[in-house]
Amino acid sequence: MAAATSITLNDVKRAHSAIREHINLSPCSASPRLSARSDCQLHLKMENLQRTGAYKDRGAMNAALGLPQPFKFE
After folding, report:
1. Is residue 49 situated within a structural domain?
2. Are 9 and 26 in contact (CB under 8 A)?
3. Which residues contact 32 (CB under 8 A, 6 or more apart)?
């Protein structure tokens, strides 16, 4: 079993800074139907607007940008 890793706010900020020019900004959209059914305000993050159609672009890009120099993604 892999050891647990703690992710800090600085880790998230560093990743955001590294990947921001490589990913699309995903808007949030209000969902009146789901909001009514759940009796609260729900918004959906439109990750389907990423190039791959999923949220996975962020993690993959961050991993690729963290590769050693000979494998550097640009």
Report:
1. yes
2. no
3. none
Contact 38, 18 (CB under 8 A): no
- Residue 9 counted as domain residue: no
CA distance 55 to 26: 9
Write out the residue range of the structural domain in which residue 35 sits.
27-56
- Give dist(CA 8, CA 15) in Å, integer: 11
Q: What is the mean pLDDT of residues 8-34?
A: 93
> What is the tally of structural domains in the chain?
1
Kindly report the pTM of this predicted structure: 0.60
Judge whether 46 and 28 are in contact, CB under 8 Å: yes
For residue range 30-58, what is the model confidence (pLDDT) as tens digits? 999 999 999 999 999 998 888 788 878 88
